[in-house]
Amino acid sequence: MTMFGSFTFVHLFYLINSIGWTLVLSALAFVLGAIGGFGVMLARISPRPWLRWAAIVYIECIQGIPLLILLFIVYFGLSVYGYSLPSLVAAGLAMMVYVAAYLGDIWRGCIDAMPKPQWEASECLAFSRWQTLRLVIIPQAVRLSLPPTVGFLVQIIKMTSLASVIGFVELTRAGQIINNTIFQPFLIFSLVGVFYFALCYPLSRWSEAMEKKLNVANR
Q1: Which are the contacts of 152, defined by CB distance < 8 A and separation ≥ 6?
Q2: 7 in helix, strand or coil?
């Protein structure tokens, strides 16, 4: 059975299957980026100036470089030196570096938003800096950070489309492969856009709902 001429259900199932790889890459980038971002956040608020400056330089450099360039550096650049990485691994590493810079900055802002009396009260209780962060500041900052973190997750899902340039077959690349076969760009990429919308819209609404709830609680 065909749909819209030569577009078949086989093509549709191929697109649907590629959604799984989009989610795999998104999860890989988010989890690794969150681990790296937590380290960047700790360095950014460290009492040691050299750590703070190192984190600032990292954030400014990564945020000033397009993700596409990072993908080229990791996938093509490393291969020149004999490190030929699978496209999934290369995309995951490049996105980890990129995501860590943004999440570290987001979470640093949430830590800085905590009222100073929280820090002062912890000092009165003779808490160390790490105890203050772990027991007092971070639990409160996590709640504050959820809306922007989920909002950035939406951006991560959409950024996975750039992995198509290094041959990783996620949703966008699957659409390109099908289009190269039957040449129906309007239909195919409209479907790809619908699938991205289906992935991202619920997360956007969830982020918005959490933000509204947080604003009501603060008032």
Answers
A1: 99, 102, 103, 106
A2: strand
Evaluate whether 41 touches 110 at the Cβ level (below 8 Å). Answer: no
| Tens of pLDDT, residues 48-75 | 999 999 999 999 999 999 999 999 999 9
Question: Which range of residues forms the domain containing residue 69?
Answer: 2-218
Cα end-to-end distance, the chain, whole Å: 57
H helix or E strand, kind and range, residue 8 = strand 7-8
Domain count, the chain: 1
Please state the pTM of the whole predicted model.
Answer: 0.89
Question: Is 2 exposed, middle or buried (CB count within 10 Å of its CB: 0-12, 13-18, 19+)?
Answer: exposed
| Residue 3 confidence (pLDDT) above 70 | no
Rounded CA gap, 212 and 209, in Å? 5
List the CATH number of the domain containing 31. Answer: 1.10.3720.10
In 3D, which of 6, 40, 63, 61 has the Cα closest to residue 178? 6
